């Protein structure tokens, strides 16, 4: 199932509900693809994270690696900007 910015403009309570539904789908064996700028949301729900820049995959891997310890400078710059201001 494809989710395109499923938490955009939602209040925190509804974000939690969306997270629960996506986790339920995953536990039932569904494969999901989620497009999001919400890094902490992605960190909670993803098995794998892909970071794209201009439609090109810059980095991919488990969220703990890509978000916590990115290899690529482009990923690090983006995360610094988003996490410092998000």
Q: Can you give a write-up of this model?
A:
Keywords: ATP-binding, Nucleotide-binding, Transport. This is Cystine transport system ATP-binding protein. GO terms for molecular function: ATP binding. This protein is of the alpha+beta class and 86 residues long. The protein has 2 domains: 1-47, no CATH class; 48-85, no CATH class. The protein has 4 helices and 4 strands. Strands 1-2 form a two-stranded parallel ribbon. The chain has a two-stranded antiparallel sheet with strand order 3-4. The protein is globular, with a radius of gyration of 13 Å. The N and C termini lie far apart (27 Å). 9% of the residues are buried. The mean pLDDT is 91.
Summarize, please.
The chain has helices spanning 12-27, 39-45, 63-66, 73-85; strands at residues 2-4, 33-35, 49-53, 56-61. The protein has 86 residues and is α+β, with helices and mostly antiparallel strands. A two-stranded parallel sheet has the order 1-2.
Beta strand count: 4
| Helix content, binned percent | 40-55%
Contiguous uncertain segments of 5+ residues? none
Number of DSSP helical runs: 4
| Order of the strands making up the biggest sheet | 1-2
Net shape: globular
What structural class should be given to the helix and strand makeup? alpha+beta
N to C succession of SSEs: EHEHEEHH
The gyration radius over C-alpha positions equals 13 Å
Average pLDDT confidence is: 91
Tell me the fraction of residues in β-strands, as a range. 15-25%
Total domains: 2
For the largest beta-sheet, the strand count, sense and barrel status come to: 2 strands, parallel
């Amino acid at each position: 199932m494809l989710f395109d910015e499923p938490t955009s403009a939602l209040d925190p309570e509804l974000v939690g509900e969306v997270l629960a539904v996506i986790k339920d789908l995953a536990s039932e064996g569904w494969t999901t693809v989620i497009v999001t700028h919400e890094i902490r949301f992605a960190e909670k729900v993803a098995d794998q994270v892909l970071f794209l820049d201009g439609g090109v995959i810059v980095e991919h891997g488990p969220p703990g690696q890509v978000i916590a310890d990115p290899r690529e400078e482009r990923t690090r710059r983006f995360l610094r900007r988003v996490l410092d201001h998000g």
